[in-house]
């Protein structure tokens, strides 16, 4: 199962590290507790839309960029767990089964 909050946390952490910011700096800029941001980055808490906007502002990254990265990560995980079709011949005709 794909967990959106875990992937969102991964993207936010990556953006923060890429910018060379500490949790403390993001916390001060976003006016959100350091512990709460840490829980979001670890995928333990859900971020509200307002909180997410505040974090994106603190990181100076457009919300659309963060959501696009998360969407791409979701697609990769979905593809990794999707069933693979396996062609199987049944009495002269082909039937497609899937391996899960």
From TrEMBL:
Alphabetical list of InterPro entries matching this protein: Cro/C1-type_HTH, Lambda_DNA-bd_dom_sf, TransReg_Diox_bact_type
Alphabetized UniProt keyword annotations: DNA-binding
Cellular-component GO terms for this entry: cytosol
One Pfam short name: HTH_3
CDD domains: HTH_XRE (cd00093)
SUPFAM superfamilies according to UniProt: lambda repressor-like DNA-binding domains (SSF47413)
Coiled-coil regions listed in the entry: none
GO molecular function: DNA binding; DNA-binding transcription factor activity
Residue ranges of every copy of the HTH cro/C1-type domain listed in the record: 12-66
Listed name of the protein: Helix-turn-helix domain-containing protein
Species name: Nocardioides terrae
């Amino acid at each position: 199962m794909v967990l959106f909050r875990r992937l969102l946390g991964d993207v936010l952490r990556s953006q923060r590290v890429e910018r060379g910011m500490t949790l403390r700096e993001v916390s001060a800029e976003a006016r959100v507790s350091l512990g709460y941001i840490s829980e979001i980055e670890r995928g333990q808490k859900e971020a509200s839309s307002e909180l997410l906007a505040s974090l994106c502002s603190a990181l100076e990254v457009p919300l659309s960029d963060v959501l696009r990265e998360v969407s791409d990560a979701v697609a990769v995980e979905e593809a990794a767990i999707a069933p693979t079709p396996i062609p199987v011949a049944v009495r002269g005709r082909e039937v497609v089964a899937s391996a899960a």
